[in-house]
Amino acid sequence: MRAMSNLPPEWGGRPVWAEIDLDAIASNVRLLAGRATPARLYAVVKANAYGHGAVAVGRAALEAGAHGLAVVCVDEGEELRRAGIEAPVLVVGHTPPSDAARVASLGLRPTVGSMDLVEALSAAARARPEPVPIHLELETGLNRHGLAPDALVALAERARQLPGIRVEGLFTHFAAAEEGDQRFTRRQLEILRETSRRVPWIPERHCSASASVLVDREMALEAVRTGLSMYGYRPAPWCGTDADLVPALSLRARVARVSELERGATVGYGRMWAAARPTRVALVMCGYADGYRRSFGNRAHVLVRGRRAPVVGRVAMDMCMVDVTAVTGVAVGDVVTLIGRDGEERVDADELATLADTISWEILAGISARVPRLYLRGGAVESVTTLNDRVPAPGR
Questions:
Q1: What span, in angstroms and rounded, lies between the C-alpha atoms of 244 and 70?
Q2: CA distance 285 to 317
Q3: Which of 222, 240, 323, 384 has fewest C-beta within 10 Å?
């Protein structure tokens, strides 16, 4: 059998799966935390940790030195709490007042943008031993749901007077930190600093996400929020070129059938590809419902037996087809790498994002919940999550 330096672990379940290298997550978190020090690091695990799995990634990030985790909604925070994670969990998205009781009971740190929510949180906190720590978002140019400086200062002063409320953080969200011209970003930072001088009693300020952590330590302040870089990708090619980030996710599937097609035979819906010569085509059990986009048909390449092979025809909901004529010996059961490394070859999320005219964030976050996740440490499977349950690794 041909030697391969990146053999995936044995997996006998559904013939498509994602491998999540928790050692890579830990390595990236340690690198980012070192760059941000002495600032605290919030590991962003919203959107199921960008498709990687929020609970397993959150635990790995905390073990590697993250101070806390960041999510976008209360449901995501509750998932972490139900898994037994007790670290600080910052909710950076909009929280309606109707969720105040859940926030208080779960011990989350919500982003607050209205007195209605502050009052609801205060009422919910009265029956609890600890106050609810809140963070206020300053609008500096993204124009989503932050508050202008005067409005934020007024809300902060009113909130600190209410029982059960502790105003813990003040933050902003950069609009263009991954762009080469940093003038707008630096102006956003200055607005944050100016505003913080009006509320010096708020202990924690944060604005840096992945791009700023990688390129400008001055912006770290008291805390940072790292998302994409924690998963091994740069927000832009020029960001942190000296940082040894390790991509953590591989997406793989198995060959379910190999067909011999005559010249002129077509493949897939719409007959968008025809064989220009006698062709061997492999049926691969991964489609757009798994997160492998329909637009990759006739454009993307996968890795089979360490070789690149083109995807042909339209990607279907549950499968795609690959021309393996140039790859010797492809057989049913062979592993196909759609994202990741096989031998010396690699396909990464940046490559696929370029083909789809999007960004790597969307490629990674788009891997659906029905794809099993295999969590690896030291190259061995530590745990598995499927659509329905969590099972122990073999022999454990």
A1: 23
A2: 10
A3: 222
Q: What is the DSSP letter of 367?
A: S
- Tell me if 319 is assigned to a ligand binding site: no
The span from the CA of 73 to the CA of 75, in Å, is 6
Mean pLDDT over 8-34 rounds to: 91
pLDDT tens per residue across span 63-107: 999 999 999 999 999 999 999 999 999 999 999 999 999 999 999
Which tokens belong to 355?
Answer: 């083909």
Burial of 4 (0-12, 13-18, 19+ CB in 10 A): middle
Q: Strand 345-347 to strand 320-323: parallel, antiparallel, or no bridges (unpaired)?
A: unpaired
Band (9; pLDDT cuts 50, 70, 90): low
- Dist CA 159 CA 135 (whole Å): 11
Residue 14 has pLDDT above 50, yes or no: yes
1 is in an annotated binding site: no
Percent of the chain with pLDDT over 70: 96
DSSP string, 80-113: HHHTT--S-EEE-S---GGGHHHHHHHT-EEEE-
Which of 182, 141, 134 is closest to 155 using CA atoms?
134
Query: What gap in Å lies between CA 208 and CA 196, rounded to an integer?
Result: 15
Q: What is the CA radius of gyration of the chain?
A: 24
Element (H, E) at 193: helix 183-196
Catalytic residue positions?
A: 46, 269
What the chain holds in terms of domains, given with CATH numbers, is: 22-230 (3.20.20.10), 248-365 (2.40.37.10)
Cα torsion 232, 238, 239, 245: sign: positive
